[in-house]
Amino acid sequence: MTFEEFIMAARNNGASDIHMTVGAPTVFRINGNLVRLNDMDEQVVNRTILSMLSAEQEQKLNSGEDLDFVFEISTGARQRVNVFHQMGKLAASIRLLNAEVQSLDDLGFPHVLTEFAQRKSGLILVTGPTGSGKTTTLAGMIDYINKNRACHIITIEDPVEYRYKPDLALIHQREVGRDVKTFDLALRSALREDPDVIFVGEMRDFETIQLAVTAAETGHLVLATLHTKGAAETVGRIIDACPPMIRSQMLVQIAQTLEGVVSQVLIPTADGNSRVCATEVLVGTDAVKNLIRADKCHNLETAMQQGAKAGMMVMDDSILSLYRDGRINRQSALEFCNDKTYVSTKLGY
Fold it and tell me: What is the reported pTM?
């Protein structure tokens, strides 16, 4: 079996990730669970990992650098790859990317995400743990904008995961490390490139956060991801990243620009054959903006509970809805919820 055939076999078995380690079993992640394969010869694993690298990448690896890149096979299927050393031997984590961008309707998200994608300016954040589908969600939003608005979209990614075909929109995709050195440099440059929409693959540091907020403040729609759990926590995380001397200024800027936060997690389906997305939604209503401006982010959870008419939802209610629809079981509902007492009561325990 060639490496391309191996990747296609993983895809056909519903794997989201492949973990290859010299001297250890190769592992697929299927529906969130790790599945061990038969042991592969060490030389075969080593040779397979090296086969994905260019001469320049192999030189960087040998000098002690970890590598992040996208590997594309002849069918056009793309994989996000991280290659690293552990215990002196090579290892690779391979994320199998969706072949095509899924629409927001296909993904089954609440209509408020479509409303977010229709905004002309402001800051929209999609958050969640690694592997929760944040990039897929934002790709659906970019796809919606591309098909419904004649505008200029700039994406800043590390690496580029989905390739968009321009429809009504003009799209430029910039890869950190190849097209530009860092996220913050790409954002600075983007503000001089006449964008309408800017997608920031990840807000990793304060400088990138500050530039993203400034871009939203100056009339651009900014879409970005953060590795945070919960919509309310996301706002607090941004504020806490600020130096103390400008905290009050950032509170005002976030209050002015925040249009929405979507926090998500993938939960195994009741039949065990797939995973479904549970979502928490914070909408930048006047009430929410006032809480942020007053530095009362700890009250945002209550605002979400009371904001159903505006499209808001807390994670536990989303999980309960999935359970009532028969899409997840009781065990998963309790495992992934935030307030087990509340969910247990609703489940009838």
Answer: 0.89
CA distances from residue 97 to 28, 92, 122, 143, 161 in whole angstroms, order as listed? 14, 15, 28, 16, 7
User: Any idea which residue has 């929109």 for tokens?
Assistant: 169
pLDDT digit string (tens) for 212-266?
A: 999 999 999 999 999 888 888 899 889 988 898 999 999 999 999 999 999 999 9
Beta bridge partners of 15: 30
Domains belonging to the chain, first-starting first, are: 3-96 (3.30.450.90), 104-313 (3.40.50.300)
Question: Cα separation of 330 and 238, whole Å?
Answer: 34
CB distance 148 to 164 below 8 Å: no
Q: Is the distance from CB of 11 to CB of 77 less than 8 angstroms?
A: yes
